[in-house]
Structures are given as C-alpha cells and as structure tokens.
Design a protein that fits this description.
By secondary structure, the chain is mainly α. The protein is built from 6 helices and no strands. It has one domain (2-136): Orthogonal Bundle (Cytochrome Bc1 Complex, Chain D, domain 2), CATH 1.10.760. The radius of gyration is 16 Å and the shape is globular.
Length: 140
C-alpha cells in the first residue's frame, strides 16, 4: 500500500512540475490583467496596492523596497521563503494558508501574524502555470 501511495505522490509531483514547465506566458499576460488592479510589472513599475512583481521569481518574500508587507509575508521571508515557481504555485491558491503552513513547517507558527494582504486566489492549476510563466519573463 505504501508503495502505491509513494508512486502516486511521485506522479502527482511530476505532473505539477510538468504543468509549471508547460505554462503559456502569453495566456499568463492576459490573466495578469486581473492582477494589475493591485500589482505592476515591467520597466518602470512601482509598488501599488501590492508590491511590484518585476523580478518576483527567485526573490525573497517580503523584500521589495518601499512596500509595507503583512507581518506574515515579511516573517516568511526572514525564515527563508524564496518565490520559486513551486512556491508561487502553492501560494496562489490560498496565500494566507500557504504562509501559515510555511511558518509552521519552519517551526515558527507563532510568526504567523494574520492573513496575507492578498485576497485574490488563483485556484486553477493551468492558470497558475500560465501566470508563473508570464512572471518568469520579468525575472532573471
């Protein structure tokens, strides 16, 4: 039974990685229009309601100059949260739940100081993959 579970987990992980790798940046650009209410990206972008997202892939959480992050987001960065493709994929469906889990996994649940400021959730895996592919076009 445990071998079957392990095989299923490996298959799910491979499918998740493949979905991220196969993201459509052009569709992500279209999807990002919803995000632009709060976030800006590209040359000359500045913070808005949310932090600018230029360079977000590979950046430490809570570190954009001049943006006032939620305590949980800032604490997660201090505990080593880097916005990898995988972490963004886990964050976007439920930002607050992800931050709480990240801090708990780091042994610091007391650092979860309430919800993320981001109320928007991206629940569809294909939409997340496309958005992440788009964000990657603005990252090193």
């Amino acid at each position: 039974m445990s071998r079957l579970f392990a095989a299923a987990a490996v298959s799910l992980l491979a499918a998740s990685s493949a979905a991220l790798a196969a993201g459509d940046a052009e569709n992500g650009r279209t999807l990002f229009k919803k995000c632009q209410v709060c976030h800006k990206i590209g040359d000359g972008a500045t913070n808005a309601v949310g932090p600018l997202l230029t360079g977000v892939v590979g950046r430490k959480s809570g570190t954009v100059e001049g943006y006032s992050y939620s305590a949980s987001n800032k604490n997660a960065g201090e505990q080593g949260l880097i916005w990898t493709e995988e972490n963004l994929d886990k964050y976007l469906p439920d930002p607050s739940a992800f931050l709480k889990q990240f801090l708990t996994d780091k042994g610091k649940p007391e650092l979860f100081a309430g919800n993320s400021k981001m109320p928007f959730k991206v629940t569809e895996a294909s939409d997340r993959a496309d958005l992440i592919a788009y964000l990657k076009t603005f990252s090193k």
